[in-house]
TrEMBL record:
The keyword Transferase applies. This is HECT-type E3 ubiquitin transferase. Residues 1-288 form the HECT domain. One of its GO terms (molecular function) is ubiquitin protein ligase activity. It comes from Caulochytrium protostelioides. The active site is at residue 256. GO terms for biological process: protein polyubiquitination. Its EC number is 2.3.2.26. PANTHER family: HECT-TYPE E3 UBIQUITIN TRANSFERASE, UBIQUITIN-PROTEIN LIGASE E3C.
Amino acid sequence: MFVQLEETRYCWFNGASLESERQFELVGTIMGLAVYNGMILGTNFPRLLYKKLLDEPADLEDIKETFPALGRGFQQLLDWEDGDVSDVFMRTFEISYDVYGEVRTFPLVDGGADVFVTNANREAYVRLYIDHFVNTSVRRPFRGFRQGFYKVCGGNALKLCRSEELELLVCGNSGEDMDFHELETAAQYDDGYGPDHPTIQAFWRVVHRMPWSRKKKLLNFVTASDRVPVKGPGQILFVVQRNGPDTDRLPTALTCFGRLLLPEYADEAKLEDRLTTAIEEARGFGLV
């Protein structure tokens, strides 16, 4: 259904997918439900997807961000000053891409195979190429995806969003300015722990000392996402549950429930060592 772009690791629509349009509609519905319920998704779609959802036109900067090699080629074509580009690039008004091992070519204008790209028409060529590449070539899968998303989130309110704001609603933000004291205030506890328990107080002292990179790993370890909801860390479900008395075992997590299973370690140094090892060495499931 989707392909992962090698250079950026973004996911993009597979225009030649054999899946039905209803399957893409289902994916769009799931994303819409996540936005409606304020849930963060660990998707890796480019900003270009959100622009398409809001009917914002794609431009060369979007191509540079999503498909850097193609973007660099276009920029080189547009900036070329050493003679006419038709003598160097030898391009015609066509677009070609691989479809399950077969190269297919489509004209960008009537008789495109006979229309060479020149200095005079190169801007039109880039514009038509981008339109075909990001719209025409993925029309069927994107149509289903958009229909599913709009079933849940369609309406005038959506039109008030810009693409970057819609992306924040879906993915949250990087949280680099996140105040972990706010997360501490919103945290919940279970099985004997509470905000005044010595182990919990030691836990938060350890957390506040962590560098930002490790704090992100802690969030990912407990919640399966290092992103922060638009409304702030107070919206994160973060539960610290007692997992037995002092032990050499590492802390574990139930990411579906936002629960950190933390043993009652004997002292703060041991807690820091065990927690750091757990979050630095953790490996989980990922979706491509």
